[in-house]
C-alpha cells in the first residue's frame, strides 16, 4: 500500500472535521460574527496584558498624583499627552484603569458563568435523568429562584453582608462575593435547559446500550448524555457572560460592587457619574462605551451561535 493510499484511508483529523463543519462555514460567511469575535478576543488580550501595556499602575499610589485629576483626553485642548484618555477624579490614568477594570469585569463574568454552569448542569442532569420526585423538587426550587430578580437577590445579600461584617472585609472579598451571588442567582437558566435536553436524550438507544453494559448513573449522565447537550450550554454561556458583566456593573454603580481601589468598568462609571455634569464627561462616558461594546459583541456572538447550533434554524 502506497503512502498516498494510506493518507486517503486515514480518518480526518479533528481540525479537518472542524474546517468542514457547518459551524466553521457559518463563521466564515458571517461578517458580524467575525467582527464580534475579533473585538471580544481583543478585549480579552488587552485585559490579560493590562500589566504590560497599561502606561500606569492604578493600584500603585506612587504613580498617582492628585494634581493630575480630571485632565481631559489628550486630543482636547487642555489635555496632556501623558494621558491618552484623560484622568479621573483621583488622578489615575483612564486608559490604565479601563484596562485593569475590563480585566476585573471579564474575570467576574466568566467565573460567575462557570459557577452557574456547574450548578445548573449538575442539577439539570440529575432532575432530567432521575425524574420523579427528585425532578419535581429540583424544578420547584428553580421556579422559586426564577421568581426573584437577580439584582434584587444580589442587592439584599451584598447589603446584608456589608452591614454585618463591615465595609473593609467586604472590599477585600468583593470579587468573590460578586462571583458567588451572580453565579448562584442564575443557575436555573442552565438547569431548565439541560433538563429538557436530558429528557430527550435519555430515551435514545445509546443510553439504553450504556445501561445494558452495566454503566452507573453518573457515568451515563456525564460521559454519554452531557456531551450531547453542549450546544445549548455554549449558547447560554455566551449570553450569560454578558448578563453577568452587566450585573456586576450595576451592582458597582450602586456601591455594592468592586471598591474604588480595585476598579471594574461598573465602579469606574459610578465614580465618574457625579462629575459628568461638571464637564469631566470622559470619566463616565469612556468606560460606559467600553462596557456597551463588550456586552454588545457578546450578545451578537450569542445570537449567532444560537442560530448556528439550532438545527431547526439551519436551512442548508
UniProtKB/TrEMBL annotation:
Protein name in UniProt: ABC transporter permease
Q: Where in the cell is it found?
A: Cell membrane
Q: Which family does it belong to?
A: Belongs to the binding-protein-dependent transport system permease family.
Instruction: Kindly give the PANTHER family that the UniProt entry links to this protein.
Output: ABC TRANSPORTER PERMEASE PROTEIN (PTHR43386:SF26), OLIGOPEPTIDE TRANSPORT SYSTEM PERMEASE PROTEIN APPC (PTHR43386)
As for membrane topology, the entry says: Multi-pass membrane protein
Q: What is its main location?
A: membrane
The record places domain ABC transmembrane type-1 at: 102-302
A GO biological process held by the record: transmembrane transport
Instruction: State which residue ranges cross the membrane.
Output: 35-54, 104-132, 144-163, 169-187, 225-246, 280-302
InterPro entries linked to this entry: BP-dependent_transpt_permease, MetI-like, MetI-like_sf, OppC_N
Q: Tell me which UniProt keywords the record has, alphabetically.
A: Cell membrane, Membrane, Transmembrane, Transmembrane helix, Transport
User: What is any Pfam family matched here?
Assistant: BPD_transp_1
Q: Mind telling me which PROSITE patterns this protein's record contains? A: ABC_TM1
Signal sequence span is none
Amino acid at each position: 500500500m502506497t503512502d498516498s493510499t494510506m493518507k486517503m484511508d486515514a480518518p480526518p483529523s479533528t481540525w479537518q472535521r472542524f474546517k468542514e463543519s457547518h459551524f466553521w462555514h457559518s463563521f466564515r460567511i458571517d461578517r458580524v460574527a467575525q467582527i464580534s469575535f475579533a473585538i471580544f478576543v481583543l478585549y480579552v488580550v488587552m485585559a490579560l496584558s493590562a500589566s504590560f501595556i497599561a502606561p500606569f499602575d492604578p493600584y500603585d499610589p506612587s504613580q498617582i498624583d492628585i494634581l493630575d485629576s480630571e485632565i481631559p483626553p489628550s486630543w482636547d485642548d487642555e489635555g496632556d499627552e501623558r494621558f491618552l484618555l484623560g484622568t479621573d477624579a483621583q488622578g489615575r490614568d483612564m486608559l490604565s484603569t479601563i484596562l485593569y477594570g475590563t480585566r476585573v469585569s471579564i474575570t467576574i463574568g466568566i467565573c460567575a458563568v462557570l459557577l452557574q454552569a456547574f450548578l445548573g448542569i449538575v442539577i439539570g442532569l440529575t432532575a432530567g435523568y432521575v425524574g420523579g420526585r427528585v425532578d419535581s423538587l429540583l424544578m420547584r426550587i428553580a421556579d422559586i429562584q426564577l421568581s426573584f430578580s437577580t439584582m434584587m437577590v444580589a442587592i439584599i445579600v451584598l447589603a446584608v453582608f456589608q452591614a454585618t461584617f463591615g465595609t473593609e472585609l467586604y472590599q477585600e472579598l468583593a470579587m468573590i462575593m460578586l462571583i458567588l451571588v451572580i453565579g448562584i442567582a442564575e443557575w436555573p437558566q442552565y438547569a431548565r435547559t439541560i433538563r429538557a435536553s436530558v429528557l430527550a436524550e435519555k430515551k435514545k438507544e445509546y443510553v439504553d446500550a450504556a445501561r445494558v453494559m452495566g454503566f452507573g448513573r453518573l457515568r451515563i449522565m456525564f460521559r454519554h448524555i452531557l456531551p450531547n447537550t453542549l450546544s445549548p450550554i455554549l449558547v447560554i454561556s455566551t449570553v450569560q457572560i454578558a448578563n453577568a458583566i452587566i450585573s456586576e456593573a450595576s451592582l458597582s454603580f450602586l456601591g455594592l460592587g468592586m471598591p474604588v481601589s480595585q476598579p471594574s468598568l461598573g465602579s469606574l462609571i459610578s465614580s465618574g457619574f457625579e462629575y459628568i455634569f461638571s464637564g469631566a464627561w470622559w470619566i463616565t462616558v469612556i468606560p460606559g462605551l467600553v462596557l456597551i461594546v463588550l456586552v454588545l459583541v457578546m450578545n451578537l456572538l450569542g445570537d449567532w451561535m444560537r442560530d448556528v447550533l439550532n438545527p431547526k434554524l439551519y436551512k442548508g
